Amino acid sequence: MVNFTVEDHDGNRQEIEAPDDMGFSLMEILKASEYPVLATCGGMALCATCHVEVLEGKDELGEATDMELDQLENLPEYYPTSRLACQIRIGDILEGSVIKLRGEDQ
């Protein structure tokens, strides 16, 4: 299991525990945890409605792919630590991270 923290649009933080052996994406875990993540494209990195900002732990996640960056750059506002939750796989790299929801409710 992997533990990380999610900060919602109101600034409330909650620790999430997620299985790291099933190949889930961060987007899938956020949706399963009932966070308001639209994920309109279903996780194909085509809509950016699962936009998150990595407040802590970005270095462990590596760099965003070109396809991911293309979507992020089309957003009205994105940050150097912005990522698409659909492109982050649940694993040890997320342990201790803090993820802030951005998505549609910016």
Task: Explain what you see.
Helix content is 18%, strand content 24%. The protein has 106 residues and is α+β, with helices and mostly antiparallel strands. The protein has one domain (2-101): Ubiquitin-like (UB roll), CATH 3.10.20. β1 (2-7) and β2 form a beta hairpin. It is globular and about 35 Å long. The protein contains three helices and five strands, in the order ββαβααββ. The protein has a five-stranded mixed beta sheet.
Secondary structure layout plus pairing:
Layout: E1 2-7, E2 13-18, H1 26-32, E3 51-56, H2 58-61, H3 66-73, E4 82-84, E5 98-101
Parallel strand pairs: 1-5
Antiparallel strand pairs: 1-2, 3-4, 3-5
Salient structural properties:
2Fe-2S_ferredoxin-like_sf, iron, 3 helices, Adrenodoxin-like, Ubiquitin-like (UB roll), five-stranded mixed beta sheet, 106 residues, globular, alpha+beta, metal ion binding, 24% strand
Order of helices and strands: EEHEHHEE
Classify the helix fraction into a percent range: 10-25%
The shape is: globular
**The first-level CATH class name:** Alpha Beta
Tell me the domain tally: 1
Low-pLDDT parts are none
Average pLDDT, to the nearest integer?
Answer: 93
The beta-strand count equals 5
- How would a textbook summarize the main sheet? 5 strands, mixed
The N- to C-terminal Cα distance equals 30 Å
What is the structure about, briefly put?
The chain is of the alpha+beta class and 106 residues long. The protein has 3 helices and 5 strands.
